[in-house]
TrEMBL record, chain A:
It comes from the Bacteria. This is ABC transporter ATP-binding protein. One of its GO terms (cellular component) is plasma membrane. Gene3D superfamilies: P-loop containing nucleotide triphosphate hydrolases. It comes from Ruegeria marisrubri. PROSITE patterns: ABC_TRANSPORTER_2. The keyword Amino-acid biosynthesis does not apply. It holds the Pfam family BCA_ABC_TP_C. The lineage of its organism: Bacteria, Pseudomonadati, Pseudomonadota, Alphaproteobacteria, Rhodobacterales. GO terms for molecular function: ATP binding; ATP hydrolysis activity.
TrEMBL record, chain B:
The keyword Transport applies. Belongs to the binding-protein-dependent transport system permease family. LivHM subfamily. The chain crosses the membrane at residues 16-37, 44-64, 70-89, 101-122, 142-162, 191-213, 225-252, 273-296. GO terms for cellular component: plasma membrane. One of its GO terms (biological process) is amino acid transport. Keywords: Amino-acid transport, Cell membrane, Membrane, Transmembrane, Transmembrane helix, Transport. It holds the Pfam family BPD_transp_2. The keyword Transmembrane applies. This is ABC transporter permease. It comes from Ruegeria marisrubri. InterPro entries: ABC_transp_permease, BCAA_transport_permease.
From TrEMBL, chain C:
The keyword Mitochondrion does not apply. This is ABC transporter permease. It comes from Ruegeria marisrubri. One of its GO terms (cellular component) is plasma membrane. Keywords: Cell membrane, Membrane, Transmembrane, Transmembrane helix.
Amino acid sequence: MTDPVLYVRNITKSFGALKASDDVSLDLRPGEIHALIGPNGAGKSTLIQQISGGLQPDSGTVHFLGQDVTALGTAQRARMGLGRTFQISALAMEDTVLQNAMLGALGASGRPFRFFRPVLQEKALRQVAETALDRVGLLDHAAIRTSDLSHGQRRQLEVAVALTLSPRAFIMDEPMAGLGASGSRRLTAFLDELRHEAPILLVEHDMDAVFALADRISVLVYGKVIATGSVDEIRNHAEVRRAYLGEDA
Amino acid sequence: MSLLLLIEQILNGLQFGVMLFLTAAGLTLVFGVMGLINLAHGSLFMIGAFAAAATAAATGSFLLALAASLAAAAAAGALVEVLVIRRLYSRDHLDQVLATFALILVFSEGTRWVFGSFPLYLNIPPALSGPVTLPGGIEYPVYRLTIIAVGLMIALGLFLLISRTRLGVQIRAGESDREMIAALGIDINRLYTVVFALGAALAGLAGALVGAIQSVQVGMGEPVLILAFVVIVIGGIGSIKGALIGSILVGLTDTLGGVLLPETFKLFMDPASATAVGSALASMLIYILMAVVLVVKPMGLYGARA
Amino acid sequence: MTRETILNAALGLGLLAFPLWAYFADEPFMITLATRVAILALAGVGLNIALGLGGLVSLGHAAFFGIGGYAMGILASHAQSYSPLMETPFLIEGTKSMPVIWLTAIVASGLAALVIGALSLRTSGVYFIMITLAFGQMLFYFAISWPAYGGEDGLSIYVRNSFPGLNTLDPIQFFLIAYVLLMAALRFSARLAGSPFGLALNAARQTAERVETVGIVPYRLRLTAFVLSGMITGLAGALFADLNRFVSPTMFSWQTSGEIMIFIILGGTARLFGPVAGAALFITLEHVLGGLSEFWHIYLGLLLLVVVLYARGGIIGTLAGQEVKHD
């Protein structure tokens, strides 16, 4: 078996009396989609933040590409190849779709401190951005102001910006949220392919998508991982059914 | 330097700090509850001072003058809250800065228009003038001692108001959760006006109390406002406790620095340049204090909010 | 051409045409007014890089304006008294040469912006506003209490500084110097907005979290913007001092910071030519209203209130409509 691309070991994070992450360990292996599910308030967002670098765990470590990245900030982890999408679109709304994608390409280039040459004339960056937009089907909308995009299109742009980084691993926070049935189907098909480029840690509420896509599922309840396993194992896991699926599925 | 002089300077620093607290408390409350940065808070300080000076000149009563400062500043505060400030709560900080800067221009020039450019004077009432001998033989002005006492009493009153009263509950609720306040059936517009007027009244009182030590003139509010900002940055936005501790720290640092630094430099410099260098550095001391706090605790000593 | 481009061209040409008219009509005072517009607009162009592009509401840009002013005052006062600034460890003489003064002003205000920015940018929002204001005030009090360069009274320079090949005492020639520098700063500012750096900075203003997740640290972008911004405002300060042949602590005052910000808002936040339109309107108001009433600041205050509450795009926003460059 190959080494995991990303793994966290025994992460604990408390906010006052609340244990948002309670001795969490999980890993992401090459080529897989690992879904992270759990009821609201289970601590998924807090965990994602600790993996991507926005929060420091109280104890435990985060490893990425064989390196301990626990002490590194978000930007450093991103430059190593950790691509992330947000649950609530974090896009420059006043800028065009192309500019948002260019921002990703610029970050990936590692050279944002250039002050004179118009960025839109940088062919290499532009090509990276346009390729990413093309892949999510937004190239036709490149010149549109992002605030004029539909909700679903913004979700696509989120993914496109992450793609410009050519990540070694993706962390996607509810990419299906608010998408209609056809949008979900398209994105499901897209992620199904994308896993071969880089594995995906997928936080998602849409159970159809999770069961269709996931190689493995981890269930987070009250900050604890109560089960990790294949789709079938999780479906039949008694504790999971009680704690989570019982209400939902 | 003698110990007596040092104690006197510490008292001066306390008095300055207490006065800063009265100004900073309103600012920090208004930010904590409404999320508003109000540059015109210094104008309310000035209005209090002018109201007091004018009333004292007309009636000869210092107590009436203080009452007038409270009333005038509270009324001016309530008025601008209803007319202008209310429209700014949902705006970004830039709009708040500009609109309240505009209010400063209107208030300052308006006051100049009414009272002219010459400073007014507010006399210390005879009962409080002259020095008192403290234990240890220190002679200290009664009036300044009174300011310290009044300020500390008001600080205590504010803590009680916020921890014990219905209004306090509403204020704390407003700081943590705006929606909850509406859900509790509290008239949020009225609450905001009341909090703003309360902050204004405190600033106005501070203006009146200080007005009897300095002269009362247009532009007297803004240096105090900026010091109150330093206080809030040090203490942490929204925290009354932080405002109190920050005020005392700033008051003591500024007063003692102004005396001690030139003295210290005299140890290894000729007196003239020691005074020059010392007082120039002393004028920067509280800002250096602020910078140090920023490096150690960017959200201030008691700040929780970004 | 968009309406904003046409408006910008009109503003640029108008600012040039007015003093040329005044020159031929022999109205030197009008030339001086236009020079003030150009210099104050330049200060605004500087602040606009931090404020408009970076979203950094600095209420302490008077610090850089004042440092630029004192760079001029200190260098020129030593030159006019033939006493060196310092002799040990090496000799530094004063100078009356504008290019040297400008360079000093830019470097000094850039260094100050680096220190103030590095501290202030550890925070954001209201804290940032209060802290920049406080640091501005710190320099104000320092200038007042430092007696070597005039203290509260400031410094007078008897003869305007020189520029190779020009007669700077001639109002129109001095105007042209200020105008050319303003245009250069505008050009720089426009290039900056379209550059890789500008893209990232502008995005950091809107969504700092996103910028971080593509591997760029917003703090560094903002600090760089703050330094560039301070440098340009510092240059404006040196010119302003040269225009008046006088520097005083007033240049450091919080009112100065507020006024520089007003130029931007009156003209239109984040608009390239916003500070030009705003400074022109400000000086016009000062001249016209100031002639009518001693208390013209009341009207300025009321106008500013109206603009903030009801006409947020400022002059350019009102005349040119929604921002077009992003559509």
